[in-house]
Amino acid sequence: MTEHFMEFFKTSGFWQHCYGSIDFLNYLKLQRHIEANGNGKEPPFKLGVVSNFDPRLDVLLRNMKINHYFDFVLNSYDVGFMKPTKEIFATAMKASELKDLKPSECLHIGATPATDYFGARNAGWYGLLVHEKSAEDLTRKYGQLVDDNHVFSSLFDIHKKISNDYMKW
């Protein structure tokens, strides 16, 4: 029974795309192509997944038909570090294979304040949260440690802000 459940857990039947995720990923893919001038130059940024998941993550992303958007996928089980440790974020920077990449040039979008947002920020990255609670609710819980401008209700909202150049770091 457990094995059957574990197999089902990596199928698309157990998961759904976040609101706005496919449009946002398509937008980022197009931006990479435009910024690389469409001439085969190295893309100006890489997209990756950094997750406290297990090795089934690659299969799950493939089953969800989104694996092709990402240049690398790191799961904490294989990497040996979990978010919020700085090591997993440093490993992501190496996996990007971008030369002279600095933490201050990296962005992590996640759903959990303690592991995603604070982990990224402590590693020197920018961090954004997609969270069901409002920025005000998170401020009540975490104080001023969570910037109101870094909390969004969906990836659609992040896409809107980035594509309209309204993003404030």
UniProtKB/TrEMBL annotation:
Protein name according to UniProt: Uncharacterized protein
InterPro entries named in the record: HAD-like_hydrolase_domain (IPR051828), HAD-like_sf (IPR036412), HAD-SF_hydro_IA (IPR006439), HAD_sf (IPR023214)
Taxonomic source organism: Culex pipiens pipiens (Northern house mosquito)
CDD domains per the UniProt record, alphabetical: HAD_dREG-2_like
Pfam short name (any one): Hydrolase
Domain of life: Eukaryota
